[in-house]
Amino acid sequence: MSYSIGEVANITGITISTLRYYDREGMFPNMERSNGGIRMFSDTEIETLQIIECLKTSGLSIKDIKQFLNWCQEGDDSLQKRRDMFYERLEVVEKQMEELQKTMNTIKFKCWYYDTALAAGTEETPKNMPVEEIPEEIRKYRYKCD
Amino acid sequence: MSYSIGEVANITGITISTLRYYDREGMFPNMERSNGGIRMFSDTEIETLQIIECLKTSGLSIKDIKQFLNWCQEGDDSLQKRRDMFYERLEVVEKQMEELQKTMNTIKFKCWYYDTALAAGTEETPKNMPVEEIPEEIRKYRYKCD
DNA sequence: CTAGAACCTGAAGTTAGGTTTAGGTCAAGA
DNA sequence: TCTTGACCTAAACCTAACTTCAGGTTCTAG
């Protein structure tokens, strides 16, 4: 089963020009073409795209993702490198989750802050509120600034 | 109490050139200068930097962050806008956390995959392993690609 | 056979978010 | 007073990751 670039764009939500850009960068080393030169994406390329998305989210650059995909072409000799890369990603993503959680807490504090301000009609109300009156869960995320 | 740009760089980990860039972009509308023209950061600016970091992590651009800081200057008239912005951020960050969790799961699968491959000396081992033998927690995150 | 939708290429353009450079000025200690 | 490390500006530069453009080819439905 094979897909045209337009179909892949629909399936994955990645634009056609991005798919062509990835191809230009060598992300699909085994992709076939029709006689007329039209790209034929297979399930392999769809799976590669899922890994690309995963690695991109984990903070890897296109260049480094390409490096990984090259290792995949090399076979078992590169197993150690590939393993190490994923363990490194694991740590990075753990850090990202922690940071995102802190961000979330700050945002929740701000939501409370502005709800309180709007209810009172003025920002002075939450700004001057004694700490004990701030809901416990968000108390410690208080910043003085607006 | 006020801080030089170098001190702020040390405190926050943000480079001096980035701090000057933020200033150029108007992120510190109330920052004072010494007679000689040297920036004097106060606690207000430090707090603004914390909010900038928070909003940046939540996916807002510098331009939009500046927009928010402008609203803060406007006083209570902009309370609703600011509230809405934070509720929007709340949703965005929730989506980000979900995506990061999926990414994490995929990476954990890959860690298992490569550990198994390395133990066996070949990728064929995890690749051909029947689903029942894959640890339960990660089973569903399996991708066929390397 | 033909129209038009979908595809192709190489090259240039875009955007965000900084960083670097060049040429100065400021401020605190010896 | 002098030095020297920290600071200043404007403007040019940089990079990643795409996107757009111009001009041409392929494929498919009627």
Automatic annotation (TrEMBL), chains A, B:
Gene3D superfamilies on file: 1.10.1660.10
Top-level taxon of the source organism: Bacteria
Entry-linked SUPFAM superfamilies: Putative DNA-binding domain
Keyword DNA-binding among UniProt keywords: yes
Gene Ontology MF annotations: DNA binding; DNA-binding transcription factor activity
UniProt keyword DNA-binding, yes or no: yes
Keywords: Coiled coil, DNA-binding
All copies of domain HTH merR-type, residue ranges: 1-71
Protein name: Transcriptional regulator, MerR family
Coiled-coil region: 83-110
